[in-house]
Amino acid sequence: MSDLCTHLETASKRDHGVHPSGHGCVDCLAAGGVWVHLRLCLTCGHVGCCDNSPGRHATKHAHATTHPVIRSYEPGEPWGYCYPDDAFVEELRAFPGEAAARHYDPPR
Ligand SMILES: [Zn+2]
Ligand SMILES: [Zn+2]
Ligand SMILES: [Zn+2]
Q1: Among 59, 69, 70, 76, which one is least packed by beta carbons within 10 Å?
Q2: Which ligand is closest in space to the CA of residue 69?
Q3: Domains of the chain, residue spans
Q4: Distance in angstroms (rounded) separating the CA atoms of residues 74 and 88
Q5: 69-72/47-49 β-pairing
């Protein structure tokens, strides 16, 4: 794929995966918030909530850290996204443990 930005290309060629921070948005879990969908930072493994969630913690994490690329952390969703380039890819390779086995709901 030659139309990928450098960040997505780098992410697709990683030789090891990240370890997801947990089965839920790490920031919502700390603050008692709720999320809709989860995203995984492919630089450090931060699990954050999507932009349809009140906290929008995946985007906040990307802006705070400049970690560029996330992958969906929802079952059956292999897409990736680069923040600096606003670039989307339908399928980004995941290492074992990077793809969510199921949807994780916020604690009640
Ligand atoms: Zn990029
Ligand atoms: Zn959150
Ligand atoms: Zn990160």
Answers
A1: 76
A2: 1
A3: 1-12+28-108
A4: 16
A5: unpaired
Question: Is pLDDT of 2 > 60?
Answer: no
Closest ligand to 28 CA?
2
How many angstroms is it from 75 CA to the middle of ligand 3? 20
Ligand 1 centroid to 87 CA: how many Å? 6
Which tens digits make up the pLDDT trace of 6-58? Answer: 999 999 999 999 999 999 999 999 999 999 999 999 999 999 999 999 999 99
Question: Nearest Cα to 38, choosing from 46, 47, 30?
Answer: 47
Q: What class has domain 1-12+28-108? A: alpha beta
Rg (CA), the chain: 13
What is the per-residue pLDDT across 58-99, written as a single tens digit (0 to 9) for each?
999 999 999 999 999 999 999 999 999 999 999 999 999 999
Bridge-partner residues for 87, per DSSP? 82
Tokens of 31: 């603050």
Spacing, Cα 30 to ligand 3 middle (Å): 17
